[in-house]
Amino acid sequence: MGKLRFRFEKTGRAKYISHLDLMRTFQRAFLRADIDVKHTEGFNPHPYISIVLPLSLGSESLCEYLDAEINGSAAEAVKGLNSALPEGIRIVTAAEPRMKPGEVGFARYSLELIYDDGKARERTDKIREYLSKGPLIITKKTKRGLGELDIYPHISELELSEGENSVRLTALCSAFEPSINPADLLAALSKSEKLKPDFARYTRLEIYNKNKIIFR
Asked: Do 114 and 90 lie in a common domain?
């Protein structure tokens, strides 16, 4: 058996699939595609698969990774899984892992901030100024419980562009001690009533290692 790392996208309605259900979805897909995958040992064996840096519910992603050990070629596995996976989940590539999951250090996210009053353009520079000055204190759940965290030192490479009713924000965020997600950015921005959007969409664009090299 050979280890493979599958890069996949999760978009549309699939963004509402929880992490646990996503694991089950892939387990069924391997079975339907008749792919011989390594199983756990014990009384109730199941496919031994893992997802690198699981995404929070409700976020789309163009960069998800699943690791598995299979018999067969990468090309055939990609073809088989794509025929068995539901709408919104698509395998992009499969290759031998080059990095360990513990090497993940950063992730790049895109946030689409939607304003019903149509004044998105007026807010772009104000959002840039607001996020470029610390501190940005939020309440975040950790292993020790709820606590306050300044996310300002853990976000960088901010880029903003505006549309008629929305502002698109991209940022590079820490993904390791602490792990910052798009909801944290929104929580910081929502501290300002004038900048708080009426609705927001999240998309993960890329994952990097601790040296900011694209994770493979």
From this structure: no
pLDDT digits (tens, 9 = 90+) for 64-117: 999 999 988 999 999 999 999 999 999 999 999 999 999 999 999 999 999 999
133 located within any domain:
yes
More confident site: 42 or 104: 104
Instruction: Give the separation between CA 1 and CA 71, rounded to whole angstroms.
Output: 5
Closest Cα to residue 206, out of 61, 88, 108? Answer: 108
For 126, the domain range is 105-209
pLDDT at 145: 79
Together in a domain, 114 and 92: no
Q: Give CA–CA dist 24/3, Å, rounded.
A: 19
Burial class (CB within 10 angstroms; exposed 0-12, middle 13-18, buried 19+) of 72: middle
pTM, two decimals, is: 0.91
Domains contained in the chain, number: 2
Residue 214: inside a domain = no
Q: How far is CA 163 from the centre of its chain?
A: 24
Q: Do 53 and 8 fall within a single domain? A: yes
